[in-house]
Amino acid sequence: MTFGWPLTATMAMALVLSPVATAEEARSIPAGQRQLFLDDDAIATTENLKRTLHQPKKRGAVIEPDQPWETTLQTRCSPVWDEQAKRYKLWLITSTPAPGVAGTTYAESVDGVKWTKPILRQWKYQDSLENNFIAVEPDSAWPANAMENVVYDPDDADPQRRFKGFLGAIGRQPIVSPDGIHWKKLDVPMLSSEDESNLSYDRQSRTFIATLKTGGPFGRSHRVWTSKDFQTWTNTGVLIHADEEDQRLGKANIRARLADDQLQQPRYNDPADYNADVYNVGVFRYEGLYVALPAVYHATGKIPVGNTDGFHLVQLRSSRDLQTWQHVADRQTFIGPSPVKGGAFDLTQLLPPSAPIVRDDELWFYYTGIKYRAEPAQPESGGIGAICLAVLRRDGFVSLDAGVESGTLLTKPFVLAGTTLHLNVDANTGELNVTVLDGDGQTVAVAEPVTGDQPRAAVRWKSGDLDSVKGKTVSLRLSLRNAQLYSFWSE
């Protein structure tokens, strides 16, 4: 599903045919780094183009609760590829049929679709070690035994520390492992956090990024912390939270859900309790920007004993510096609920992954899907929560689109790092034309028309080439007809 929203007034003005910025103002873009359109960073002007948000296509549950000790499976991680073991590894928050008994379990996969749960013999459940629970301390119990977040750091010189994670559901103790299965605590201070957090590794800057739950203006919010060594952590001061506009849109989202009989309905509904806050948020580096996946929780009514009933919608935010964040697509839903009929797990609660996995020309998002929040009067048999998979075209968060009438994009000036230009474009029923301009706005090269659905089209030149302007300031003028442009880059 796709959602369009207008470009800003600045970008919607008539196209300027030559760059305005001087060479000194030109941005330096590393070779191979893709330029996306979640924000205006790459855009000077546009004409007759619209921006479109694209939702990933759901593949359903890939890890379900199918063992006697499992009722609900969740994750606040992304699978990591272990090059030595030749498999993906993932860590799950696992609820059991025994009241108050929970912990972290482990699963692995060769292809990312079929997952196995090896017997680890680390932690006793009902006096048996025949299970896949992971235990840093064998005698610990929930919430002290929780491992909500794990990342893989291939750059650590010590192979005993290449898997890194947080221990504990209240507060976060840094831990390390050689294989993601056998763990030890680091002798460093615990990080303050409530019961939700997320973690990613920005390999480009070798920075660990954590979001730790705290209070905010409208309830649940998340503070952004960073570390270069996983031992010393810095509070960046950034708080990702809901605002007044989220409250307005939240009420509209609740009303829309209540009117849709295809969706799982909350058991408790009281307009006096309506509220929107950020339940969890994954923050990760993707190409030249940071992306956040806030799970916006919509409270619909108080549960007589406990918290509130409600549901989640996953949105998108973006940043260039981890400090200043902007909403993408006017806060439209990036991952939303599945219909009740169809056997899906992601009916009500949807919690985001730490980051997507890049698989060739796709992005794979592994997220938590839970059928309900307040237990129904007549609970159904079978599991309640599972790990679900949704797949997006690589770079496919947002596209710039043109219809029958041609639209044009002029990029901001940048220093050309390579001699080959690549485009991620769907021009299956149309075409895209490229003109390269130098720092003075003069034409350097004109491309052959690009047609077809091409996630990594290599532009061929009708006249001129890029050899003479490598390392110099250029701009691109891209003209689209019946086409969608997702990104561009040079190599």
Walkthrough of the structure:
This protein has helices at 9-12, 244-258, and strands at residues 2-5, 27-28, 43-47, 50-54, 57-63, 72-74, 80-82, 87-95, 102-109, 115-116, 133-134, 149-152, 163-167, 173-177, 184-185, 197-202, 207-216, 219-227, 233-240, 275-286, 289-302, 308-314, 317-319, 326-327, 349-351, 357-359, 362-370, 385-393, 398-402, 407-411, 414-415, 421-438, 443-447, 450-458, 461-463, 473-481, 483-490. It is mainly β and 491 residues long. The longest helix has 15 residues, at 244-258. The protein is globular and about 75 Å long.
Task: Please name the defining characteristics of this protein.
mainly beta; 37 strands; 491 residues; globular; 13-stranded mixed sheet; 2 helices; 6-stranded antiparallel sheet
